[in-house]
Amino acid sequence: MTNTDWKASLKSPKAFNDFIINYFKDHKELTGNYETPSYYEYYTVTLNSEKGLVITLVSSINPTVNADAPTIPFKDVETISVEEFRQLILNKKFADMHTSLADVFQTVAGVPGSTK
């Protein structure tokens, strides 16, 4: 699979669904993260045959050196159907042909600093 395979599959709901199923057969999950000195966010995307795509986000403020109180990460789990995800991608119009599927998940998840 190349970066352009998933873009070609966007033309058809069935082709995109097949692409996503095959992607997750090979990869089981897609992970990514965003970090700054003061903040972090980790995300994991999996495919559930009944729920669709399951996106788990864990985010928190990084503790400062002199902080007395520990920070508690926030976990959010969202589900979206494969077709809803396809429509989100189509509406965002990812024009850059070098955008990977991971970049799209990062952007759709709303990770700060994602530019694609």
Give a short account of the largest sheet.
4 strands, antiparallel
Over the alpha carbons, how many angstroms does the gyration radius reach? 16 Å
Number of strands: 4
**Assembly type:** single chain
* Order of helical and strand elements: HHEEEEHH
Low-confidence stretches: none
What is the share of helical residues? 25-40%
* Average pLDDT over all residues: 77
Strand percentage: 25-35%
Q: Briefly note the structural class of the backbone.
A: alpha+beta
Helix count, DSSP H or I runs of 4 or more residues:
4
Walk across the major sheet and give the strand order.
1-2-3-4
Q: Which of globular, elongated, flat, extended, rod-shaped describes the shape?
A: elongated
Number of discrete domains:
1
Properties at a glance:
alpha+beta, 36% helix
Describe this structure as you would to a colleague.
The protein is an alpha+beta fold. It has one domain (2-107). 36% of the residues lie in helices and 29% in strands. It has four helices and four strands, in the order ααββββαα. It has helices spanning 3-9, 13-27, 82-92, 101-109; strands spanning 29-35, 39-48, 52-61, 74-80. It has a four-stranded antiparallel beta sheet with strand order 1-2-3-4. α1 packs antiparallel against α2. The longest helix has 15 residues, at 13-27. The two termini are 20 Å apart. The mean pLDDT is 77.
